[in-house]
Amino acid sequence: MLRIIMFVTIGLLLASMFLAVGSANEPGYEMTIPQVTAPPRVDGILDDAAWKAVAPVEWGNINTGGEVDKDQFSRSWAVYDDKFVYVAFENLEPDTASLTIDQKVRDIDVWKDDAAELFIEPNNVGAEPYFQIVINAENLTYDDENGGAQRVWDPHLESATRVYNDRWTVEVKIPFEDLGVDKPTTGETWGWNFNRHIVTNASIWTGWATTGSSFHTPERFGALTFGMIVTSVKPTDTLVGTWGNIKSVW
Fold it and tell me: What is the phi/psi pair of residue 173, to 5°?
């Protein structure tokens, strides 16, 4: 009888540990991304076949509650290959002529501009280490680890932006090596969040997963799972940009 009680007790402890780990993500925010054989070209134009291989997530949650109007919602995609994860943002904005793009120095206050943000937590335990990438509408970048001192984490990013009349887009290519990991295995899940700072006519912080008052809340990130390889996708349409910027940071 004692042995049975011990087994039950151990089983309950293991179950509680599993549930604790599993609760590291904000419920309701999950996406699975494919591995692609033809990765997207990083030019800010979201017409690549790779983006048709995955359904985007659409979001506009204000971090302090509520949602922005539909004409300021965002959509985001992600795919991966053997060495990189690729991410795209499409940020709706009815007044792109009023985008705030004041920052001029990489890694200094880029988040004060109209900017897209990405949070990545490879261990998926709702804790440090996690990584932050910020890209403004003019393709100036900011990156750091654990919300810490600037310039400490210096990844080899390749990024591009485009601005249209009613939206602006971002594409970014991130090496797994710079995240301190090997290529993820199929079924592996990371903590992940898409965020945005909207400055036109206001100052609003939005996100995919609802992290509350601070984006730096890894226990409330969404969950991104690495799926199986995809070798064929549907045909794509072509978008024409009004202006854009392409840059590699090495």
Answer: -115, 120
Distances (CA, A) of 151 to 36, 107, 108, 163: 31, 7, 9, 27
Whether residue 159 contacts residue 170, with contact meaning beta carbons closer than 8 Å, is answered with yes
Domain spans of the chain?
A: 28-248
- Give the pLDDT confidence of 46-56 residue by residue, as tens digits: 999 999 999 99
Using DSSP, state whether 228 is helix, strand or coil. strand
DSSP 250: -
Q: Are 143 and 235 in contact (CB under 8 A)?
A: no
SS3 for 135? strand
Q: What percent of the chain has pLDDT over 70?
A: 82
Contact 217, 121 (CB under 8 A): no
| Predicted confidence (pLDDT) per residue in 160-179, tens digit | 999 999 999 999 999 999 99
With cut-offs at 50, 70 and 90, classify the pLDDT of residue 149. Answer: low
**3-state secondary structure at position 58:** strand
The residue ranking higher by pLDDT, 149 or 138, is: 138
Identify the CATH number of the domain defined by range 28-248: 2.60.40.1190
Q: Which residue has the tokens 């969040």?
A: 193
Q: Which residues contact 166 (CB under 8 A, 6 or more apart)?
A: 71, 92, 93, 94, 96
Q: What is the band of 18 on the pLDDT scale with cuts at 50, 70, 90?
A: very low
Q: Cβ of 104: how many Cβ atoms within 10 Å?
A: 10
